C-alpha cells in the first residue's frame, strides 16, 4: 500500500517544496480485545488518543477480557513531519461512570512515525503491552489487541495474509512492536542537560520595555528565554532567564520512558516568555536513531555536550511574523536564530531497587556546569565569496537598487541588533565611491584594535537592467563584487570532514547507479560492466574513508558520540567496502537487477550516515536585498564549502563556481507564487581557517586583477573587494527547441498554450506560442549573439555555465502563467573538445514533464576563430545536445545552406 499523500520510502519524509495538492493523512485504529487485565470486578473502557484528540470505546461490564472490535479514524490537516511526531496512546480505564475519571489500568504509546515505517504502514492484529506510567515497578498490566494504520484519505487498507486463529491468539509472538525491539523493554531515564544559549534575537513583545527605555534610559535585553523539551508525549521546561540574549541555565530535564522508546525524535525549543503569549525562538529535533546504535557493538543514546544551531524566520522582530512556523521547526529556516549548548544521556533503571522513584513525571533539576573549552578550541574562520553573475531577477523588484548580503551565524548580519551597520569617515575626498560604500557595509563591532577592517558582508547596491519583460539582471560584467567575513567558532571541522568524505562516496555511487539505470532503460549494451565499475569505485572509496579517519586520532574536545559514531561509521564502511568487492565478482548479465537493489541499499545507508547530529559551523545564508529589505534567499551548508588540505575532506562546492537559485522565504516559496525564479546567481565561496586562506582565490576563472579597498591600514593583506576581469571570450549560443511532451494541463480545457523561454547569462529569448496542446513541436532555432564569458577559453569547455529553460502557459486574460516546468542545462566535456549540454534534474518548481520529455539541442559556438574545436555529431537522436563548432563551419547542424 502506498499512501497517496506521501510518495517515498517508509521513512519520515522531509517537507517538500513541490506545490502539489496532497490529501490529508489519517490514522485508523481498531480496538479488538484485551486480555489478562490486572484487577477485580472491572468495567474496562479503552481511551484512544492521537495527539490532543481522544475517543472512547464502549464500556464492558465485569470482565478482565473485554471484546470491542471498534473502529476509530483520526483526521489531520498538518504537514507530515508534524503528524509523524504525534503520540498514539492506548489506555485501559476501569470506570463505572464515564462522566467521572476512572482508574487507569495500564497504557501503551508510540509515535505515528513508527507506525508509518512498518510494512504497508500498519500493525495488523498485534498485542500492545500495557504498563502503569504512575508506577514503573508494577510490571505488566495486561494486553490490548488492535490494528493501527497510517493511510491517505480514501486509500484502502491492505489486509495482510490472515493467519489461523491459533497463531493470532499467541500473544508473545504478535506483540505491537517494530522488528528488532525486544518484547521485554526496560525503564530508562533520559537526561537532557541545558547549559546555555548564545546569539538570541530581540523579541520585542513588550511595549513597556520601549517606554522605559525612552523615559529613563533603561536598556535591557528584550527577550526572556527558557528551553522547552518534548519527548514521548511529555513536556519539561527550564526556568526563565529574564532579559538575556546569552542566558545561562545549567539545568537538566529528566524523562522516564521505556527503552528502546517507540518515539523517534526529541524536540528542543527555545521560547520567549511573555505574559500574553509565549513564542518560539528556534526549534531543534534530535533523532534518537542518529545518536545511538542497536547493533552488537552499539551504544545507548548520547549527545554532546555540543552546540546545536537553530534556524527560523528572519531576526528582525514583528508582532505578526508571517514566518513564525519556521521557528516552530516547520519548513526550512531562512535565518540563524540562536545556538544552544546541551547534552543528552540515558540511564537504564533497575526497577527492583526499592530506592528508585516509581513515577514517570518529568523532573527538572540543577546540572553541573561545564568548562568553556569542553566543546572545542575557538578558531578564527574566514569566509570569502565572489558574485560572478546575478540574473533572472524578478521584475517586481527590478525598479530599486539591489545588493546581496552574506551571513554566517550572526556575523555579517546588518539588520539585526547584534550587527548594526558601521559608518566610517572618509579620509580625503578622492576615495572611490564603491570603496566607501562597501566599507559602510561592514559591521561596527568587526574591527581590529588597530582599526583594520575585518569584514565586508554585503555587495554595493546596484540598479538592475532589463533582460526581458519578466527578468532583470545586475550589470556586473567584468567587475565582480566580493564579500569576506571573519568569524569565530569552536573547531569541530573533523565532523564535517568525515561527512564530506561519505557525501562524496554517496554522490559518486548515485551518479553511477543513475548511469546503470539509464543504460538499462535505453537498452544500451553491457550495463553490468558499468555496475562492476561502480562497485569497484565504491569499494575503494570506503577503504579510503577508513584510512583517512584512522590517521586522525586526536581526541581533544571529542564527545562520546564523536568517538562512538566514528567507530560505527568505520565499521559500516569497511563492511560495505568488503561487500562491494564481493558483489563485483558476482555481477553478471542475469543477476544484475538483483545486485542493483543491494547497491541501492548501500546508497541509503550512506545518506543516513552523512547527516551529522552534532553541529559545528552554522550554515551560510545569501540574501538578496532591495531597498534595505530582505527579498529572497539561498541557504548553503557550511560543510559544502569547507576547505581542507585533503581533497576528499574538502566540501564539494568549495572554491568552485556554482549556480544558485534564490527563492522566497517560508510559505511564499510554495505553490504557484513560488514557481517564479527570484534570482539566479553564479557564486564562488570558500570557507576555512583564517590561517589557511592563502589559496582562497585558486578556483576562480583566470584573468582577473584584485581590487583592494583604497583606505585603511595593512590593506595589502586583505581580500579584494572586487575582481576586475581583463580576459573574456565572446560566444554565440544556438538553442534548437524541438518539442516537449506530457506538459501540465494549465487551462480549463485540459490543454495548455505552451511556449519556452531560454535564458543564458544576461540574455533571454522565447519560442512561439503553440495553442491548445500538451505536446508542442516548436522546431525553432534561437540564436544568442555576443555572449560574453569571462576567463580562459579552456575553462569554458571544462566548466561551462548553466542554461535555464522555462516552459510557460500563455493566457489571454492573465498574460502568462509561469512555472509549468523549469530545467537547468549544463554543458559537459565529452572529449575531442566537444561541448554537450545534458538535462539535469528538474527543480522543485517543475510540474508535469519528465526529463526525457523535453527534446532540445544546444550548441555553444565561440565567436572568434582562435579557438578551434573538434568535429560534431550530426545526430540528435538522444535529444540532449550536439557538438560545438565555429560559427558556420561545415558539419554545423544549424548552418544555413
Automatic annotation (TrEMBL):
Q: How does it sit in the membrane?
A: Single-pass membrane protein
Repeat keyword on record: yes
Asked if the keyword Transmembrane helix belongs to this entry, the reply reads yes
Recite the UniProt keywords alphabetically.
Answer: Membrane, Repeat, Transmembrane, Transmembrane helix
Q: Name one GO cellular component term.
A: presynaptic active zone membrane
Q: Which residues form the C2 domain?
A: 7-128, 171-302, 715-839
Where's it found, cell-wise?
Answer: Membrane
Q: Which CDD domains match?
A: C2B_Ferlin (cd04011), C2C_Ferlin (cd04018), C2D_Ferlin (cd04017)
| Pfam families linked | C2, FerB, FerI
Source superkingdom: Eukaryota
Q: What SUPFAM superfamilies has UniProt attached to this entry?
A: C2 domain (Calcium/lipid-binding domain, CaLB)
Low complexity composition bias: which ranges?
883-897
Q: Which GO terms describe its biological process?
A: plasma membrane organization; synaptic vesicle priming
Q: Name one GO molecular function term.
A: calcium ion binding
Residue segments, region Disordered? 417-459, 869-897
Checking InterPro entries in the record gives: C2_dom (IPR000008), C2_domain_sf (IPR035892), C2B_Ferlin (IPR037720), C2C_Ferlin (IPR037722), C2D_Ferlin (IPR037723), FerIin_dom (IPR012968), Ferlin (IPR037721), Ferlin_B-domain (IPR012561)
Q: What is this protein called?
A: Otoferlin
Q: Which organism is it from?
A: Chelydra serpentina (Snapping turtle)
Taxonomic placement:
Eukaryota, Metazoa, Chordata, Craniata, Vertebrata
Amino acid at each position: 500500500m502506498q499512501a497517496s499523500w506521501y510518495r517515498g520510502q517508509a521513512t519520515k519524509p522531509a517537507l517538500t517544496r513541490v506545490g502539489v495538492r496532497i490529501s490529508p493523512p489519517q490514522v485508523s485504529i481498531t480496538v479488538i480485545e484485551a486480555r489478562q487485565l490486572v484487577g477485580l470486578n472491572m468495567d474496562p473502557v479503552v481511551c484512544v488518543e492521537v495527539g490532543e484528540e481522544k475517543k472512547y470505546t464502549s464500556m464492558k461490564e465485569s470482565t478482565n477480557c473485554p471484546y470491542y472490535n471498534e473502529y476509530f479514524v483520526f483526521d489531520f490537516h498538518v504537514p507530515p513531519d508534524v503528524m509523524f511526531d504525534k503520540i498514539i496512546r492506548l489506555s485501559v480505564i476501569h470506570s463505572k461512570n464515564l462522566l467521572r475519571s476512572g482508574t487507569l489500568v495500564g497504557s501503551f504509546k508510540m509515535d505515528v512515525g513508527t507506525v508509518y515505517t512498518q510494512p504497508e504502514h500498519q500493525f495488523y492484529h498485534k498485542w500492545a503491552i500495557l504498563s502503569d506510567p504512575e508506577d514503573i515497578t508494577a510490571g505488566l498490566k495486561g494486553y490490548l489487541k488492535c490494528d493501527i494504520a497510517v493511510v491517505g484519505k480514501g486509500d484502502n487498507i491492505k489486509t495482510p495474509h490472515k493467519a489461523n486463529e491459533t497463531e493470532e491468539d499467541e500473544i508473545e509472538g504478535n506483540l505491537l512492536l517494530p522488528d528488532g525491539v525486544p518484547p521485554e523493554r526496560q525503564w530508562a531515564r533520559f537526561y537532557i542537560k541545558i547549559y546555555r544559549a548564545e546569539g538570541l534575537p530581540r523579541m520585542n513583545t513588550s511595549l513597556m520595555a520601549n517606554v522605559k527605555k525612552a523615559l529613563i534610559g533603561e536598556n535591557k535585553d528584550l527577550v526572556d528565554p527558557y528551553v522547552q523539551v518534548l519527548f514521548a508525549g511529555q513536556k519539561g521546561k527550564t526556568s526563565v532567564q529574564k532579559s538575556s540574549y546569552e542566558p545561562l541555565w545549567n539545568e537538566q530535564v529528566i524523562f522516564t520512558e521505556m527503552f528502546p522508546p517507540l518515539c523517534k525524535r526529541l524536540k528542543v525549543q527555545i521560547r520567549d516568555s511573555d505574559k500574553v503569549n509565549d513564542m518560539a525562538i528556534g526549534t531543534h529535533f534530535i533523532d534518537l536513531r542518529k545518536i545511538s546504535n542497536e547493533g552488537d557493538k552499539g551504544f545507548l543514546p548520547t549527545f554532546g555536550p555540543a552546540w546545536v544551531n537553530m534556524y527560523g524566520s528572519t531576526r528582525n522582530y514583528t508582532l505578526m511574523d508571517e514566518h513564525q512556523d519556521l521557528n516552530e521547526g516547520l519548513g526550512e529556516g531562512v535565518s540563524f536564530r540562536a545556538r544552544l549548548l546541551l547534552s543528552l544521556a540515558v540511564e537504564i533503571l533497575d526497577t527492583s531497587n526499592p530506592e528508585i522513584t516509581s513515577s514517570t513525571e518529568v523532573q527538572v533539576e540543577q546540572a553541573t556546569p561545564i568548562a568553556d573549552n569542553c566543546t572545542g578550541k575557538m578558531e578564527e574562520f574566514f569566509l570569502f565569496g565572489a558574485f560572478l553573475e546575478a540574473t533572472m531577477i524578478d521584475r517586481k523588484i527590478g525598479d530599486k537598487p539591489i545588493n546581496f548580503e552574506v551571513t554566517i551565524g550572526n556575523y555579517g548580519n546588518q539588520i539585526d541588533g547584534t550587527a548594526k551597520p558601521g559608518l566610517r569617515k572618509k579620509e580625503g575626498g578622492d576615495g572611490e565611491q564603491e570603496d566607501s560604500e562597501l566599507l559602510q557595509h561592514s559591521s561596527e563591532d568587526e574591527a581590529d584594535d588597530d582599526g583594520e577592517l575585518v569584514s565586508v558582508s554585503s555587495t554595493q547596491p546596484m540598479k538592475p537592467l532589463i533582460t526581458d519583460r519578466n527578468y532583470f539582471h545586475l550589470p556586473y560584467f567584468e567587475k565582480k563584487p566580493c564579500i569576506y567575513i571573519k568569524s569565530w567558532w569552536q573547531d569541530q571541522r573533523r565532523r564535517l570532514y568525515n561527512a564530506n568524505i561519505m557525501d562524496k562516496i554517496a554522490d559518486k555511487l548515485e551518479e553511477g547507479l543513475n548511469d546503470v539505470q539509464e543504460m538499462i532503460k535505453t537498452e544500451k549494451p553491457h550495463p553490468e560492466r558499468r555496475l562492476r565499475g561502480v562497485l569497484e569505485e565504491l569499494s575503494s572509496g570506503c577503504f579510503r574513508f577508513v584510512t583517512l579517519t584512522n590517521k586522525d586520532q586526536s581526541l581533544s574536545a571529542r564527545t562520546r558520540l564523536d568517538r562512538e559514531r566514528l567507530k560505527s561509521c568505520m565499521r559500516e564502511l569497511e563492511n560495505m567496502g568488503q561487500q562491494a568487492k564481493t558483489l563485483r565478482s558476482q555481477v553478471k548479465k542475469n543477476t544484475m537487477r538483483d545486485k542493483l537493489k543491494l547497491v541501492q541499499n548501500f546508497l541509503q545507508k550512506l545518506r543516513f550516515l552523512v547527516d551529522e547530529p552534532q553541529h559545528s559551523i552554522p550554515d551560510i545564508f545569501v540574501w538578496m536585498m532591495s531597498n534595505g529589505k530582505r527579498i529572497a534567499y539561498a541557504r548553503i551548508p557550511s560543510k559544502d564549502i569547507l576547505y581542507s588540505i585533503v581533497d576528499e575532506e574538502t566540501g564539494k562546492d568549495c572554491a568552485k563556481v556554482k549556480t544558485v537559485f534564490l527563492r522566497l522565504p517560508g510559505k511564499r516559496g510554495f505553490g504557484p507564487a513560488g514557481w517564479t525564479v527570484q534570482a539566479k546567481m553564479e557564486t564562488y565561496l570558500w570557507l576555512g581557517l583564517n590561517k589557511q586562506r592563502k589559496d582562497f582565490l585558486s578556483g576562480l576563472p583566470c584573468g582577473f586583477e584584485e581590487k583592494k579597498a583604497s583606505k585603511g591600514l595593512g590593506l595589502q593583506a586583505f581580500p579584494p573587494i572586487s575582481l576586475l576581469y581583463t580576459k573574456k571570450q565572446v560566444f554565440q549560443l544556438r538553442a534548437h527547441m524541438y518539442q516537449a511532451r506530457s506538459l501540465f494541463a494549465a487551462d480549463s480545457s485540459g490543454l495548455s498554450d505552451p511556449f519556452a523561454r531560454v535564458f543564458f547569462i544576461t540574455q533571454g529569448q522565447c519560442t512561439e506560442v503553440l495553442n491548445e496542446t500538451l505536446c508542442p513541436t516548436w522546431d525553432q532555432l534561437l540564436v544568442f549573439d555576443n555572449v560574453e564569458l569571462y576567463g580562459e577559453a579552456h575553462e569554458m569547455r571544462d566548466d561551462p555555465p548553466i542554461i535555464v529553460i522555462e516552459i510557460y502557459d500563455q493566457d489571454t486574460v492573465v498574460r502568462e502563467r509561469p512555472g509549468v516546468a523549469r530545467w537547468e542545462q549544463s554543458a559537459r566535456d565529452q572529449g575531442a573538445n566537444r561541448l554537450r549540454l545534458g538535462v539535469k534534474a528538474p527543480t522543485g518548481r517543475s510540474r508535469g514533464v519528465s526529463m526525457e520529455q523535453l527534446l532540445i539541442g544546444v550548441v555553444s559556438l565561440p565567436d572568434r576563430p582562435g579557438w578551434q574545436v573538434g568535429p560534431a555529431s550530426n545526430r540528435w537522436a538522444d535529444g540532449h545536445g550536439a557538438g560545438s563548432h565555429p560559427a558556420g563551419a561545415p558539419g554545423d547542424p544549424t548552418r544555413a545552406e
